[in-house]
Amino acid sequence: MINDKRYSDMIYKRCGKSGVKLPAVSLGLWHNFGTESDSQNRRDLLTTAFNNGITHFDLANNYGPVPGSAEENFGKVLHSDLKGYRDELIISTKAGYLMWDGPYGEWGSRKYLTTSLDQSLKRMNLDYVDIFYSHRFDPETPLEETMGALASAVRQGKALYVGISNYDAEQTRRASEIMKAEGVPLLIHQARYHMLNRTIEEELLPTAKDEGMGVICFCPLAQGLLTSKYLNSIPKDSRAAGKSVFLKPEQITQELVTSLNQLNQIASQRGQTLAQMALSWVLRNEEVTSVLIGASRPEQIIENVKAADKSQFGLEELIEINKILDQMPFIR
Ligand SMILES: NC(=O)c1ccc[n+]([C@@H]2O[C@H](COP(=O)([O-])OP(=O)(O)OC[C@H]3O[C@@H](n4cnc5c(N)ncnc54)[C@H](OP(=O)(O)O)[C@@H]3O)[C@@H](O)[C@H]2O)c1
Questions:
Q1: What single-letter DSSP state applies at residue 222?
Q2: What are the CA-CA distances from residue 263 to residues 70, 195, 200, 210 (Å)?
Q3: Could you tell me if the CB of 218 is within 6 A of ligand 1?
Q4: What is the CB neighbour count within 10 angstroms for residue 174?
Q5: What is the value of pTM for the model shown?
Q6: Residue 111 covered by a domain
Q7: Whose CA is closest to atom 27 on ligand 1?
Q8: What pLDDT score does 96 carry?
Q9: CA-CA distance, 31 to 328, in Å (whole number)?
């Protein structure tokens, strides 16, 4: 059942200087949509998100495991439970990481980006995606070629907008100049940003603003660290306790847990959970269009969307938060 009131509580923010708006909270399908994931849970995650105002779903060619399976599984739900709602959705995918053998299966050549996008469209059973990204900067391919392939995707109607991900500030500026000359400005930058990794604040955020691009921030919860999940222990059903190579139990030290509990206290004073405060904290930046969360269960989405309209922080609060963050380790 689709909720008639799904647009009433979410905030939609203009993406850079474009005409399109994104929900303040978007859902990514990096985890929990692969071959071994539970199909009913996938349906529940996507319908819960849509019913709570999340109109943007983010994929990549390699999401799974196995690579490609997240797109396939997403396509199934889109054409069953969300049938008839394609025009209400912003669906993104990316190409950049290893997808197939041989010299054309990764990085940023025209050959790879073009064929990968065709494969993604087939897997999701779509005519077009809303956003197609270059997933990483390729130091060996002329940037003009990578950007030219993105511009062609738009001209061919296979993507409505294009973006870049994991490019540094200088690479972003150059990419943006090339795309403006192509007449296909970059819509968005997808960058890693959370309380324990503030790398983009100094250069990338101002650059994106100067170039008129929106910014969508991935791993805003540091893969779940910035939630109530690890305040006491490492639950068996958490990402850290699972097979993830990206979040490991040894990262969750006693010192980290102590600081997380201090942050949690500030969150409580704000009337938020730690996850909600961590998301609001990312959204406090005017350059940030959306936070790109992951979720393993629908209840997490319901909790997280409530962060959308609480992105104001008092100066005192920010000082208190900074004092704690200064003591905490950098987490990628
Ligand atoms: N462009 C890139 O290079 C790139 C790289 C990485 C990710 N991304 C994008 O960013 C998206 C999000 O990444 P992410 O999944 O690492 O983001 P995240 O939001 O930092 O972490 C999501 C995980 O945190 C836990 N969680 C979420 N909400 C919770 C809550 N309220 N309470 C307790 N636990 C909660 C869940 O893990 P449990 O399993 O522990 O429950 C969930 O799967 C990806 O799906 C992808 O679309 C892009």
A1: G
A2: 33, 10, 21, 32
A3: yes
A4: 15
A5: 0.98
A6: yes
A7: 295
A8: 98
A9: 26
Q: 42 lies in which domain range?
A: 12-222+275-309
> In angstroms, what CA-CA distances link 8 with 50, 299, 307?
12, 19, 14
Residue 327: inside a domain? no
Task: State the total domains in the chain.
Answer: 1
Q: Give per-residue pLDDT as tens, 190-234.
A: 999 999 999 999 999 999 999 999 999 999 999 999 999 999 989
The answer to whether the peptide bond before residue 235 is cis (omega within 30 degrees of 0) is no
**Inside any domain, residue 234:** no
* Residue 116 forms part of a structural domain: yes
CATH number of the structural domain spanning residue 304: 3.20.20.100
Answer yes or no: is the C-beta of 293 below 6 A from any ligand 1 atom.
Answer: yes
Distance 248 CA to ligand 1 centre (A): 14
End-to-end C-alpha distance for the chain, whole angstroms:
38
pLDDT (tens digit, 9 = 90+) per residue, 40-86? 999 999 999 999 999 999 999 999 999 999 999 999 999 999 999 99
Nearest CA to ligand 1 atom 40: 238
Low-confidence ranges of the chain (pLDDT < 70): none
Question: Among 30, 58, 233, 280, which residue has the most ligand 1 atoms within 8 Å of its CB, making it the best to mutate?
Answer: 30
Residue 161 phi, psi dihedral angles, 5° rounding: -135, 165
